[in-house]
Amino acid sequence: MNTASKIILATLAIVGAFVIGFETGEWRALEHERRLPDWNGVKVQAQDAARRWAAKVHEVPSAAMSNRYVRYISFPNKTCIQLRLKDGVGGMPIYCYRARTLYLVEEYSDVE
């Protein structure tokens, strides 16, 4: 095996190890996000956001959320719920509520 072949093989091994490590880390981060505790009533807000999104796309909430998971974004005066895609292509709606209430203050759902 000549030097060029060894360099190419080593480069492919390094890139492969990096990709596998990155994918594993991303998967674990997504699992951690799904296990967040109910913090300041965000579970109810997430359910409300799922109902709103389901109504917008004319589906039942379980079907509308089958390929999505919830990401919480907290600010001092509001909590935003982003309905992220697990995989695939498409928009990710965001619903923002006044802190600790179901009062919708912002909506970014024109993402179809």
Description:
The termini are far apart. The radius of gyration is 20 Å and the shape is elongated. The protein is an alpha+beta fold and 112 residues long. It is built from three helices and four strands, in the order H-H-H-E-E-E-E. The protein has helices spanning 3-34, 42-56, 61-64, and strands at residues 68-74, 78-85, 94-98, 104-108. The protein has a four-stranded antiparallel sheet with strand order 1-2-3-4, with helices on one face.
What is the element layout, followed by pairings?
Elements: H1 3-34, H2 42-56, H3 61-64, E1 68-74, E2 78-85, E3 94-98, E4 104-108
Antiparallel strand pairs: 1-2, 2-3, 3-4
Task: Summarize the entry for a quick read.
With 112 residues, this protein is of the alpha+beta class. It has helices spanning 3-34, 42-56, 61-64; strands at residues 68-74, 78-85, 94-98, 104-108. The radius of gyration is 20 Å and the shape is elongated.
Q: Can you give the helix content as a percent range?
A: 40-55%
Rough shape? elongated
Average predicted local confidence, pLDDT? 83
* Number of E-type strands: 4
Widest beta sheet: strand line-up:
1-2-3-4
Distance N to C terminus: 53 Å
Uncertain segments are none
Put simply, the count of helices is 3
Q: Give the class from helix and strand content and strand pairing.
A: alpha+beta
Strand content: 15-25%
Major sheet size, sense and barrel closure: 4 strands, antiparallel
List the keywords.
112 residues, 22% strand, alpha+beta
